[in-house]
Specification:
The chain is α+β, with helices and mostly antiparallel strands. It is built from 15 helices and 16 strands. The chain has 4 domains: 106 residues; 49 residues, SH3 type barrels; 81 residues, Alpha-Beta Plaits; 174 residues, Sandwich (Jelly Rolls), CATH 2.60.120.10.
């Protein structure tokens, strides 16, 4: 099947075709002017004074020479090079060809109109040639370096580079300078000789893949493998970090007060490196907070503090969970067991709590903050579903059935969540098997709401019937999931 050409590509080709013919308009204009002077010269040759005839003849020669020069430039430069614009050497070739043609035209006009013949001077005066070469030494150096840059593909427009300590994106490479736009949005002009005399880092060519590194310190009380897993998880949550190649973690040193780790991630857009590094630092702080990994202070500093999460007592969690509709069927004794096993987790703004398709067996209750819920459609695009505020909960289906997550949930702001997992329900279901059916109805109702977002359920009767079927299916899944975990 033939695919339609993208509009941008079609517009570019159309623009190229239009630009090819523009120089010919200049050639036509000069030719018409020259023809006009020639006609005046022929008609008025008998009546014009000698000085006037010479002026008109000189004007004819001038405009004819310009028309020929622009036509030759179009034939050997403008037309063929217009189709090769993606090659970095094209602007330089066009400039060199133009300079040569301008020089030849100037020498011809000086000889024809003024009577100055420069050819003996150019061919015999070695002294003048040497003086010109010495005076243009730096310019010639930049010129030939510009040729080398373009032919060797050292840098090109659009590349992210570091030249002479200046980092930025290449905006243009001319015969004399290389122009960068820095991260500070400053436009920097660098002489081309700096590229031949110094060190050049190209972060885009021959591959845009680049490693970003983050140094992290963790307490001696935290097992290195645990720290490694948490760092990998935090890295993969950051937009712009590639999962292939996979991030690396290196234990680099045992310091005075912490174990030093180096996180190395792969990115393919060097222009986003500052944003990505910032996001990684955010993710690492929140991930360490959730997993009780300490970023220690220097041992020479005495600092006594208490963790904020540890100040929340189990009875406070129990009081909060008693207000959740999802847990209303639990007795007071069952609620105590579930609350005792619960933990608190902190998530930063924009951080993904879990993704659609992830495995899990935990349920989250919002104590502070808010979260956004997204559902991935058939085309793979994430669609906003709802925002859950304080008092809301999510993840109950995975808690009770072990199923993959049905949605993606992202913290809307800094959020404090109470987390319970399936293990806390094992003893509860042992003592109250009938509780499975009560919870299955609540989970089924929530599941129907989600399905209604995907496929509009139009009638109430249809919704009730769907809820009955789903409730029965959820109950079977709960029994299957806890089979073997709950003692008979």
């Amino acid at each position: 099947m033939i695919k339609s050409e993208p509009a941008s590509s079609a517009n570019l080709k159309s623009s190229t075709r239009a630009n090819i013919w523009k120089p010919l308009a200049v050639v036509l204009l000069f030719s018409l002017v020259a023809a006009g002077f020639k006609i005046i010269f022929i008609i008025g040759s008998d009546v014009l004074p000698g000085q006037g005839a010479r002026i008109i003849d000189g004007a004819f020669v001038l405009f004819t020479a310009l028309a020929v020069m622009f036509f030759v430039r179009w034939v050997i430069s403008d037309a063929p090079l217009a189709f090769l614009r993606h090659f970095t050497i094209v602007p330089l070739l066009r400039t060199l060809i133009g300079l040569i043609l301008y020089f030849i035209t100037a020498v011809y006009l000086l000889h024809r109109l003024v009577g100055i013949d420069l050819s003996p001077l150019l061919t015999t005066s070695a002294v003048i040639t040497g003086i010109i070469a010495l005076s243009l030494q730096e310019t010639l150096k930049n010129l030939f370096t510009g040729i080398w840059i373009n032919t060797e593909r050292v840098v090109a427009k659009g590349d992210w580079v570091n030249i002479a300590g200046k980092e930025g994106r290449v905006m243009d490479v001319t015969w004399r300078t290389t122009r960068l736009m820095t991260f500070s949005n400053d436009y920097v002009y660098l002489p081309n000789k700096l590229l031949s005399e110094g060190h050049v880092d190209n972060y885009t060519y021959p591959t845009p893949l680049h490693i970003a590194e983050i140094d992290v310190g963790a307490s001696y009380h935290d097992p290195p493998n645990k720290v490694k897993d948490v760092l990998i998880e935090a890295a993969l949550k950051e937009t712009g970090v590639l999962s292939d190649p996979y991030p690396d973690i290196y234990l680099t040193a045992f310091g005075d007060f912490s174990i030093h780790y180096k996180l190395r991630v792969w990115i393919n857009d060097y222009g986003s490196i500052l944003k990505i590094k910032s996001g990684l630092h955010y993710n690492i702080w929140y991930a360490f907070k959730r997993n009780n990994i300490e970023i220690p202070f220097p041992i020479r500093t005495i600092y006594r503090h208490k963790k904020e999460i540890s100040t929340i007592k189990p009875e406070d969690i129990e009081t909060y969970l008693k207000g959740m509709d999802f847990l209303k069927p639990l007795s007071d004794a069952d609620m105590k067991r579930v609350s005792a096993a619960a933990k608190m987790e902190v998530y930063g703004e924009g951080e993904i709590i879990f993704k659609q398709g992830d495995k899990g067996d935990t349920c989250y209750f919002i104590k502070e903050g808010a979260v956004d819920v997204f559902l991935r459609g058939e085309a793979g695009k994430e669609n906003y579903v709802a925002t859950l505020q304080v008092g809301g909960f999510f993840g109950e289906m995975s808690l009770l059935t072990g199923e993959e997550r049905k949605t993606t949930v992202r913290a809307k702001g800094d959020s404090l969540l109470i987390v319970i997992d399936s293990r806390s329900f094992c003893e509860v279901f042992e003592k109250s098997p009938d509780l499975m059916e009560s919870l299955s109805k609540i989970v089924a109702a929530r599941s129907i709401e989600l399905e209604a977002t995907k496929r509009k359920i139009v009638t109430e009767a249809e919704k009730i019937e769907a809820q009955r079927v789903v409730s029965s299916a959820v109950l079977d899944k709960i029994r299957s999931f806890f089979k073997g975990k709950v003692k008979s």
